[in-house]
Amino acid sequence: MQVILLNGPPRSGKDTIGSLLANEIEGAYCDKFAAPIIDHMYSNFGVSCDDGGDKSVPLDVLNGFSRRQYAIAYSERWIKPTLGEDWFGQQAARMVELRAGYPGGRSVLRDNTTPWCSTLIFTDSGFREEAIPVVEAVKKRDGTVVQVQLFRPGCSFNGDSRGYWDLEGVRSIQFFNDGPLDELLMRVRRELVPAIIR
């Protein structure tokens, strides 16, 4: 199994590039470290994080917080102080095990609807502590982990709790998302995919 960790600031194109990679790499599937936060916001407030809307817009249902602000507060003020800095990484490591499935491609998930995959792409890696459990889970399966650090003009981690990170044993690739959207697919196909699967 291979895991790809996309690491970049807000609006650097993580979800878009993750989707493009999933379409270009056979057996790939996208997931998120923040999946528990996304589930929490939807089940408690009816707020979707997957609607393509601007995550920085304040919402009345979140008491004036934007989705991004709420997610950071929930993560940094509640989950990590209570359950540990690596809790989201532990949940992601469980996803690695579940998505890897059994030989023959049968999923081990309870609903049996989530597909087995050979490449799992996390589109929101931003913490070294969360990457460590994922790297350990992948190593148990003799797999590989690749970090893709995304850079885009005008995008930074200012006001965000995430950042770029380094971890021994993880190959890192830097990718500059600095052109128009219609060129991005060609660049992902021509530059990024060969660098990942080399």
What does this structure look like?
42% of the residues lie in helices and 14% in strands. It is α/β, with parallel strands linked by helices. It has one domain: P-loop containing nucleotide triphosphate hydrolases (Rossmann fold, 3-Layer(aba) Sandwich), CATH 3.40.50. Strands 2-3-1-4-5 form a 5-stranded parallel beta sheet, with helices on both faces. Helix 1 (14-24) crosses helix 6 and helix 4 runs parallel beside helix 5. The radius of gyration is 17 Å and the shape is globular. It starts with a strand and ends with a helix.
Q: Work out the number of β strands.
A: 5
Helix/strand/pairing category: alpha/beta
Q: Please identify which CATH superfamily we are dealing with.
A: P-loop containing nucleotide triphosphate hydrolases
Largest sheet, spatial ordering of strands: 2-3-1-4-5
Number of helices: 6
CATH fold type: Rossmann fold
Q: What is the level-2 CATH architecture name?
A: 3-Layer(aba) Sandwich
How many individual domains? 1
Radius of gyration: 17 Å
So what's the overall shape? globular
Keywords:
5 strands, alpha/beta, 5-stranded parallel beta sheet, 42% helix, Rossmann fold, 6 helices, globular, 198 residues
